[in-house]
Amino acid sequence: MREQSRTTRLGLRVLALGYLALLLGIPVGLVLYRTFEHGAGAVWSSVTTPAAIHAFQLTLEIAAIAVPLNTVLGVLTALVLVRGRVRGKPVLEAIVDLPFAISPVVVGLSLVLVYGRTGWLGPWLTDHGIQIIFSLPGMVIATVFVSLPFVAREVTPVLREIGDEQEQAAATLGASSWQAFWRITLPAIRWGVAYGVVLTVARCIGEFGAVSVVSGKVAGESETLTLLVEKRFGNFDLAGAYAASALLALIALATLLLMTRLNPRKEGRP
Amino acid sequence: MITVESVDKHYEDFHALRGVDLEIASGSLTALLGPSGSGKSTLLRVIAGLEVPSSGRVILDGEDVTNLAPQQRGIGFVFQHYAAFEHMSVRDNVAFGLKIRRRPKAEVKEKVDELLRVVGLDGYQQRYPSQLSGGQRQRMALARALAIEPAVLLLDEPFGALDAKVRAELRTWLRRLHDEVHVTTVLVTHDQEEALDVADTIAVMDAGQIAQAGRPRDLYDAPASEFVMSFLGPVARLGGGLVRPHDLDLSLEHREGATEAQVQRVVHLGFEVRVELLPADAPAGAEPVVAQITRAEAETLELQAGDIVWVRAPLGQVPGVVAA
């Protein structure tokens, strides 16, 4: 009996680890292996081409706009969802989850339908000399859309858990809602916010589908890292694709490490 | 002085307060006592401004504060689960209200240290709430509420989350603190012993209304209803009326106005002895009547299960209370 349960346990472990290795470990490991197959020099020259540097900068630029936007909006949404006395909370909650449910490609296409040259707002935008699709604003909007839920989803349960008594206590001590938010609520939810921000950063940097549709993919102009990887792969520049992928993986790794360091359990106090 | 005038509070499908009128004297320690759901916490939160009454008025020291936010009422509020600011040290917790009021640093420090001395947390300034016991957290919460020198101190089941021993200690301590600080204090509790122990006025609440308000002794001796009587202490039902178990008089012979009963169980509780009786005229399956007598009495009567005794309530001892 005991032997059997040990075998089962061992079997389950092998299954879980094997699953992870096949789907995650081996592919990512192979990318890194292939990247450095021909030495670091080749990698360096491949990630320092003007197109690659621009793609890297553009990717960070989009993230730098989308992440703060979604952080503020996400915290606000979570506050409304948990503390707000509004009707239709289930509807709002469903809307927050919408970007998870809709395929990014569809998000991109729908943005074209609204902001594109022949789109719903297109003529008005053209008249005023504003270009959204095939330029930075469109890519930012697409990225904001797909990375919208993370902060709100991370902060909502934390807000529920801490309850509103601390805020009420702050109110009886004379704090305005604004003071109570900055001095009490925000410090209490900071780990949730931090975790949400890290996930948002990862999503923004890795986004492909929606950005692909609205970018126009002009090298050195509207090409992000993920798009660069796809282009190089399509052009049979495998070494170049691997190098760009490795750069993406590196950014992701850095974000994840940051998240582990932010983990509150590592701290002595909450 | 706190005046509550015909306050009603409706929630969506619940009538929490029904025309509550109450006056709380300045400098008093008043307990709002009642079972859960009786509206006592809601009334306290209405006084604090954390709930807005559906109708009626709240007047603090002559000023109508019904439409004022809690920030502007000059109240201190203590929550059952402490509501400690977990990310702040004990010092910062207590200093919070003073910092909001932009008091000079030196003054804040002096005041905080003094308050922590008063509540017995001197030396704990640098600790965090998670490093304190429940009783210590609640004393910190009290210091925090007192720091802003509130006109009124409101305590919502402040000792409800603590174990029995700490609870008894803290309420003795609270009584002493009140005698020192003299701030008008309202305490919500469902524990009649706690109310009788600390309060100089008790308002008993039942189903969103004040059932009776007055001095603890008056309420105990002259309860206005069976509800008040049964809530303020143990009761026994005999011949259709309610009596206190220790007022029941047992004898082995028949006496004027006594009821015949059979002893079911005799329990020795140290100095007191509890006798469970089944009156001869009780319907089948009725709860036994519990009488409380002294050990000396029990020894004189030599009671044993199965004995027949005569039990009576002292006449005229329980004015105003009769069976409905």
Question: What is CATH's topology name of the largest domain in chain A?
Answer: MetI-like fold
SSE string of chain B, helix = H, strand = E? EEEHEEEHHHEHEHEEHHEEEEEEHE
The low-confidence runs of chain A, each spanning 5 or more residues with pLDDT under 50, are: 265-270
Number of strands of chain B: 17
How many alpha or pi helices of chain A? 13
Distance between the termini of chain A: 43 Å
Structural class of chain A: mainly alpha
Strand content of chain A: under 5%
Describe the structure.
- The complex is a heterodimer of chains A (270) and B (324).
- Helix content of chain A is 79%, strand content 0%.
- Chain A has 13 helices and no strands.
- In chain A, helix 9 (165-172) packs antiparallel against helix 10.
- Chain B has nine helices and 17 strands.
- In chain B, the strands form four sheets. A six-stranded mixed β-sheet of chain B has the order 6-7-8-3-9-10, sandwiched between helices.
- The two termini of chain B are 36 Å apart.
- The A-B interface holds A 165-166, 168-176, 179, 183-184, 187-188, 269-270 and B 48-50, 69-71, 73, 75-77, 79, 81, 83-88, 96-97, 100-101, 128, 130-131, 141, 144-145, 147-148.
Task: Set down the secondary structure blueprint.
The complex is a heterodimer of chains A (270) and B (324).
Chain A: H1 2-35, H2 40-47, H3 50-83, H4 89-101, H5 104-115, H6 122-127, H7 136-146, H8 149-162, H9 165-172, H10 177-206, H11 209-215, H12 225-234, H13 238-262
Helix pairs in contact in A: 1-13, 2-13, 3-7, 3-8, 3-10, 5-7, 5-11, 7-11, 8-10, 9-10, 10-13, 12-13
Chain B: E1 2-11, E2 14-24, E3 29-33, H1 40-48, E4 55-60, E5 63-64, E6 75-78, H2 90-100, H3 105-118, H4 134-147, E7 152-156, H5 164-181, E8 184-189, H6 192-198, E9 201-206, E10 209-214, H7 216-221, H8 226-232, E11 236-238, E12 241-243, E13 249-251, E14 259-269, E15 272-279, E16 289-294, H9 295-301, E17 308-312
Helix pairs in contact in B: 2-3, 2-4, 3-4
